Amino acid sequence: MLMQEDYTENLPFVYALCCPADWERVSPLLEILQKNDCRLCWDQPSAAGNAPAAENAEVILAFLSRQSVEDHSFRSRFNRSILGGKPVAAVLLDPVELSPVMKAQLELEQVAAVDYAVCHTDGACCLALLQLPAMKPCLEEGKTIHIPKASIKKYYLKRRSTGEAIQISKDEFTVGRKLTCSYAIPDNESISRIHAVFHLKNGICTVMDHHSTNKVYVNDRELDEEEQFQIKSGDVLELGTETFIVDVIE
User: Fold this and answer.
1) Reduced 3-state DSSP string for 18-37
2) Model pTM?
3) How far is Cα 32 from Cα 140, in angstroms, rounded to an integer?
4) Which residues does residue 221 pair with via DSSP β-bridges, in sequence order?
5) Fewer CB in 10 Å around end: N or C, the chain?
6) Model pLDDT, residue 49
């Protein structure tokens, strides 16, 4: 369990910054870092303990996402960290459109960026962080790094009309009538040219409606426009007159 510690000694530590909307994604990463003897504080007000101020940290760990770059409070804290002259390790949680100011800051020599999407798993992302030179003073010396093994999930769609098991085999997987779709159903007029798009990232798979005529239903509920629904084993997907059952194998 992730616990905020009190640092009464003059030990170098990492101070993590994220916006509240990203906490569910960030906290598992912080837990792995802490389990690997990284001295760590963060900016969550609900955390127990008396956290030292970010100004006293050895390095700032900033988690950048679509939400955070639009969060004025986060941007202000990030800017203050940069202006304070601290080394910064930035984790790119999403492909983000940075403001010109933030982009210039990330290009500074003192900022090291780890792309979470490229790492594919929490463990690989944390391993990349633990290997950054700026993080070294905040780690216990002589410890063995224990990174949890990634749970490799395989997502399949079982097509009820044919019995086929279709693996969602790439990061962006399309289903539709168009022949260039990842899985094409060219002979069913109830299916739009690109009917649904599945996104596979870090072991999580979501589905969204691609402006289809007959919509996408998950467990009898119509997906809202632009909604990305996280699918799991047993979910029933309806695309036009086609029905698919989700099967997840770990």
Assistant:
1) CCHHHHHHHHHHHHHHHHCC
2) 0.57
3) 14
4) 218
5) N
6) 47
